[in-house]
Each structure stands twice: as structure tokens, then as C-alpha cells.
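Hello,

I think I submitted the D-ribose job twice by accident. Can you confirm which output corresponds to this input? Input:
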Amino acid sequence: MIAIGCDHAGIDLKPSVIEVLKEMGLPYKDFGTFSHDRVDYPVYGELAARAVASGECERGIIMCGTGQGIGIAANKVHGVRCAICADCYSALMSREHNDANMIALGARVVGTEVAKMILRTWLGAAFEGDRHARRVGQITKLDKGETLQP
Ligand code: RB5
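Support: Only one job matched these inputs. Its output is below.
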């Protein structure tokens, strides 16, 4: 199950997100928003992020105007590693190296075709583990409030 969430600025990308999920045969749960009425992006970033952090959803896709605000908000939820992406290379690396479990896109930054390409790349990629697992483990320590310093 893929969590999706957005604010009023990100909603324009939602049909493209759903198109890719359907194309890839991935079920999704839409946490809103559902109209262009102005809302606050942290609310929807949190809803999708908590679904991922709890295990209800394996991954999450969130959108706002830039991807920045909703991505930053999602990253405040323990267990979430949200990559804010505007290109396919970053999206691929965020899965292979960083095991990103969420991706944030900016509807005012990327066009629909670029967004779809980014999502196909991100959803089709796998974490490489190995040395990257150690580093993701260090991120998890920071997430828990621990330090990496001796
Ligand atoms: C809303 O105007 C806009 O600030 C929001 O969608 C997002 O871009 C914030 O990071």
C-alpha cells in the first residue's frame, strides 16, 4: 500500500501520481487534501508519514508546491526518510543508497511527465544495502536522538 498526501498546491500532481500507481499495479491510500481550498501542508505530510512509519503503508508519495515543506514535515516523523526530488537520478539514489521510504514532489517545480518518470524510477528501485545499510542505520540513530560522535 502506498500512502499519498498533498496540499492545495500539490494536488495538481495527484492524477499523475495515481496514473503511475495504477500503471504499476500498486494499491494506494489517499490521505488528502481533496480540493484546491488552501490548507497547511504539514497536516497532510504527517498523515501520510504516520501511515508509513506505522507500517500501514510501505511507502509514501507527497506533494506540495515545491515538495520542500511537506517533505521537511514528513521527515519529522520517526522512521521516515523522505527524499525531496526533482530529477530521476536523485530519486534512484534515494532508494538505492538512502532507502527513502517517502518521496516529496513539487507541483510548481516539475511537470507531470517528469513527475511520472521520477515516480516510475523511485517505485521501481530497490535499496542496495551493504555499506549503505550502515549509513542508514546511523540516520536511524540520529532519528532516535542518539549521537554518532565518540
Ligand atoms: C503553498 O503556497 C506552498 O507554500 C506549499 O505548497 C509548499 O510549496 C511549501 O513548501
